[in-house]
Each structure stands twice: as C-alpha cells, then as structure tokens.
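Protocol step 4 of 6: structure prediction from sequence.
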Amino acid sequence: MTASFRNGTTASEARDVLPSRTDPTQGATVPPGWTDKIGSEGTVKTIKTMLIDSTELNVDKVLLTDDSGTRYIFEADSKHYMWNMSRQDGAYIKSPQGREAIFAQLAEDPTKLEVELLDDE
C-alpha cells in the first residue's frame, strides 16, 4: 500500500515537485544529509569555539552540519574546511572552490571532494 496525502499525491510525487532547500544568503542548495539549521546562537558559538580550539583557524562561519551532528563544513579566512568530530580531524577543501560548488559536490558525490588533511599539531 502506498501512502498518499489528502489530495491523492504520493510521497514520491511530492518529493519530485518540492523545491530544494537553499541557503537564502548564497542561493546554494543544502545537500541531502546536511543542514544549515545548526541551532541557537549559543550552540553556534560553542561549535565555533570547538572548531577554533581544534584547528587553530580563525573560524568565520559554520555553514553546515551533517544530520548526525558529527561533521561540519565551515569558513575560515575565506577558505572552506571540514571537521569530523568522531575522528577528531579536519581538512581544507581544495576542490571544488566556493560554497555553491562544495554544496553541489556534497550532494552529488562527497568522495570526490579534493581535500588536504590539517596537521595534528
């Protein structure tokens, strides 16, 4: 049995016509499995502090977190980085460049991001 909405539309039909969620400040589509709704101002400040302490980078903005809250995409000094909480490691995203291109690559195939691991110092 296929579930449907009151108007008879099935869930898969609705998914096909729903607009993609975009970052209103940049127009970048938030990739599946990630969110730009990171939390309250206090939560974002705590995450930024953790990223600064962990990476020693000047973190400007936390852009995304994965749905499990263990990985982050962030900007520091106009560059983009990833941080993995469970592995306690980070990487500079070498390619693609730019928020929209990174978001698109995360949606298409995140294994194709070209990254350079950050030093463990």
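Step 5 (inspection) to follow. Residues 26-117 form one domain.
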